[in-house]
Amino acid sequence: MDVQVQFYALAREVAGSGVTGTGRAPKLLGVETDLTLADGSTLHVYDTGGSGKLTVFWHHGTPNTGAPPKPLFAAADRLGIRWVSYDRPGYGTSTPRPGRDMASAATYVTAVADALDIAEFAVMGHSSGGPHTLATAALLPDRVLAAVSVSGLAPFDADGLDWFAGMAPGSEGSLRAAAKGRAAKEAYEAEFDPETFTPSDHAALDGPWSWFGEIVPPAIAAGPAPLIDDDLANVGPWGFDPADVTAPVLLVHGEADRMVPASHSAWLAGRIPAAELWLRPGDGHISALNHAEAALDWLSKQAG
What pLDDT is attached to residue 21? Predict the structure, then answer.
């Protein structure tokens, strides 16, 4: 079993699950629907609705469904934020698209925003959702007002970055397998090392971010194919240059992150013209999300 699947199985246990045997995430306030795209494929879309002052597109991590981040709902209500998101291809009822890259996020966001008649919006993502967030900002400069990436990756070919340095063995092994291609990634197996995560990560999973226990089981219910597609996109050509992002960007990263080291966000901060970097001592890949409410405040101010 892939190390990421094993971790999120742990997250499910910590959360006490509560997910039914249907393999679907619990219903959220708002609307879920299957949007038919121009090519006939399907994209599963979430919309918390309302007439919020600001729409924020959420880009999910791996392997997650695209359900908006429930732990941030109270902050979103306070700020007048409407969440919109989607399951990336292969997750849930979204049609698989092997070979998709990070740049494809801009195409999907455009389709959803047009269908919902949303002209401008902000974007936010966690982990592998970070590069999808930056892709949306880079490729839709006339529509994206501001962006937040939490615990996100840098491009695999980032000049001057030792991409694997500081990764836990399981995370490194999984991504090195992806770098060898689909067959190697499909064959990859590893035991999950709990030390990949900091004590603060485990505390976050035992607290508000136990929400991962709701969004992971339906993401892996049909097997590892979309996770594999995500990791191949992580190590493949992204289809855009982060330097092309012109909107204000906030990069949030735990300095103790061993799944995606903080050096990734530090590299991005030096590449993106209007980037701000928040490094958080003692935090890891999950507990960095404890600063997501403050990041949402930042996003609201920048987009306002």
Answer: 32
Q: In sequence order, what are the residues at sequence separation of 6 or more whose Cβ sits closer than 8 angstroms to the Cβ of residue 187? A: 177
Kindly state the DSSP code that residue 82 receives in the 8-state scheme. E
User: What are the contacts of 32-36 at 24+ separation with CB within 8 A?
Assistant: 34/93, 35/86, 35/111, 35/112, 35/115
2 pLDDT tier (thresholds 50, 70, 90): very low
Are the C-beta atoms of 100 and 41 separated by less than 8 Å?
no
Distance set, CA 90 to CA 62, 63, 66, 115, 136 (Å): 12, 11, 11, 21, 19
Answer yes or no: pTM beyond 0.70. Answer: yes
Q: How does pLDDT run across 7-61, given as a tens digit for each residue?
A: 344 333 333 333 333 334 434 457 999 999 999 999 999 999 876 789 999 999 9
Rounded Cα–Cα distance for residues 263 and 104 (Å): 25
User: What is the C-alpha separation between 117 and 108, in angstroms, rounded?
Assistant: 14
The DSSP line for 99-137 is: T--TTHHHHHHHHHHHHTT---EEEEEETTHHHHHHHHH
Domain topology for 3-303: Rossmann fold (3.40.50)
| Domain ranges across the chain | 3-303
Cβ atoms within 10 Å of 114's Cβ, excluding its own: 11
Q: What percent of the chain has pLDDT over 90?
A: 85
Considering only CA atoms, which of 71, 25, 22, 17 is closest in space to residue 44? 25
Instruction: Dump the DSSP string for 141-189.
Output: TTTEEEEEEESPPPPTT-TT--TTTT--HHHHHHHHHHHT-HHHHHH--
Dist. CA 69–CA 148, nearest whole Å: 14
| 43: DSSP letter | E
The label of the residue with tokens 């007048």 reads: 80
